[in-house]
C-alpha cells in the first residue's frame, strides 16, 4: 500500500473556503453540515481498508470493506449482486471548511484517504431543490501527469465552480475489490476490525 497522499487533480484558490462531501464515515463525524446527495454515482462496499492507516477498518491479513462511489455508467458495466432502484443517488453530508482551515484540513483528508482515493468535484443537492446547494466559488484547476504516484503540475487555470470536493476510490486502484454476493460482503464486514469493529462503520452509516 502506498504511503503517498491521494493523487489530486483540483485544488482550491488561496484565501477561499472549500466544501467537502462525505458519504462514508464522514457522515457521522463532520462539523456543522448540510444533508444532501450527489447524482450519477453508486455507493458500494467495494473498497478494502487495511492496517497502517490512521483510520483503518481492517488488518493487512484481513482487510475490511468500506464504501466508495462508482460512476453510474461504469457501474452499469459491472455485475452488481444487489442493484436496486435509485442507486444513482447517494446521500451524504456537505460541510464547509473555512479558509483559515483549508490547508490543514486538506492535508489531513489527503492523508486519511490515501488508500486509493482520488479527488473529484461534484454537485450536491438537497431534497426538493433543483439547484446545487453549494454556492459558487472560485477554484483553480491543475492539470497533472500521473506515472504511478509521481505527479507533475503542468498548468493552472482558475474558474468558478459550484461543487463540493469528494474523495472517490476508483476501480483501478490497488484496494478496489469490486462486487461480491451480499452474504459474502456481510460476513467480511461482520468479521473485520481495525480501529474498531467494522460492523460499527456499517451501523453508523445506516443510522445516520
UniProtKB/TrEMBL annotation:
Q: Which GO terms describe its cellular component?
A: cytoplasm
EC category name:
lyase
| Keywords from the named record | Lyase
Q: Which domain of life is it from?
A: Eukaryota
| rRNA processing listed as a keyword | no
* UniProt-recorded Gene Ontology molecular function terms: glutathione specific gamma-glutamylcyclotransferase activity
Which EC number applies? 4.3.2.7
Q: Which InterPro entries match?
A: ChaC, GGCT-like, GGCT-like_sf
Q: Name one Pfam family in it.
A: ChaC
PANTHER family attached to this UniProt entry: CATION TRANSPORT PROTEIN CHAC-RELATED, GLUTATHIONE-SPECIFIC GAMMA-GLUTAMYLCYCLOTRANSFERASE 2
Q: Which named protein is this?
A: glutathione-specific gamma-glutamylcyclotransferase
Q: Which organism is it from?
A: Jimgerdemannia flammicorona
Amino acid at each position: 500500500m502506498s504511503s503517498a497522499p491521494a493523487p489530486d487533480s483540483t485544488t482550491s484558490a488561496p484565501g477561499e473556503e472549500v466544501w467537502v462531501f462525505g458519504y462514508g464515515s464522514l457522515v457521522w463525524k463532520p462539523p456543522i453540515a448540510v444533508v444532501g446527495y450527489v447524482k450519477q454515482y453508486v455507493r458500494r462496499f467495494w473498497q478494502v481498508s487495511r492496517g497502517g492507516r490512521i483510520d483503518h477498518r481492517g488488518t493487512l491479513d484481513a482487510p475490511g470493506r468500506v464504501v466508495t462511489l462508482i460512476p453510474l455508467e461504469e457501474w452499469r458495466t459491472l455485475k452488481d449482486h444487489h442493484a436496486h432502484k435509485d442507486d444513482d443517488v447517494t446521500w451524504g453530508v456537505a460541510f464547509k471548511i473555512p479558509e483559515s482551515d483549508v490547508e490543514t484540513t486538506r492535508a489531513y483528508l489527503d492523508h486519511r484517504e490515501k488508500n486509493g482515493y482520488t479527488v473529484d468535484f461534484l454537485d450536491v443537492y438537497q431534497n426538493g431543490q433543483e439547484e446545487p446547494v453549494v454556492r459558487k466559488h472560485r477554484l483553480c484547476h491543475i492539470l497533472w501527469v500521473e506515472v504511478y504516484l509521481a505527479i507533475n503540475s503542468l498548468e493552472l487555470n482558475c474558474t468558478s465552480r459550484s461543487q463540493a470536493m469528494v474523495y472517490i476510490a476508483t476501480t483501478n486502484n490497488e484496494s478496489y475489490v469490486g462486487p461480491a454476493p451480499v452474504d459474502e460482503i456481510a460476513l467480511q464486514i461482520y468479521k473485520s476490525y481495525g480501529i474498531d469493529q467494522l460492523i460499527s462503520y456499517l451501523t453508523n452509516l445506516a443510522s445516520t
